[in-house]
Amino acid sequence: WACAVLGARPAWTPRLPASVREPAAGQSTIVCHQRSAVPHGSN
């Protein structure tokens, strides 16, 4: 799951804006759910 490895900086993380790359603790879950709906090979 993307959520589980969000803190580990998955492969797609560097492609996100800096503000999203290091989100607040509460926002990290939201970003994770949004990105998890997008197919990515890091899973």
**What is the tally of beta strands?**
0
Secondary structure tally, helices: 2
Largest sheet: none
Specify the structural class. mainly alpha
The whole-angstrom Rg is 9 Å
Helix content: 25-40%
Total number of domains:
1
Distance between the termini: 7 Å
Short description:
The protein is mainly alpha-helical and 43 residues long.
What this model shows, in words?
This protein has 43 residues and is mainly α. The chain has one domain. 37% of the residues lie in helices and 0% in strands. It has 2 helices and no strands. The protein has helices at 18-21, 25-36. It is globular and about 25 Å long. The mean pLDDT is 52.
Describe the SSE topology.
Elements: H1 18-21, H2 25-36
Task: Identify the notable features of this structure and list them briefly.
43 residues; mainly alpha; 2 helices; globular
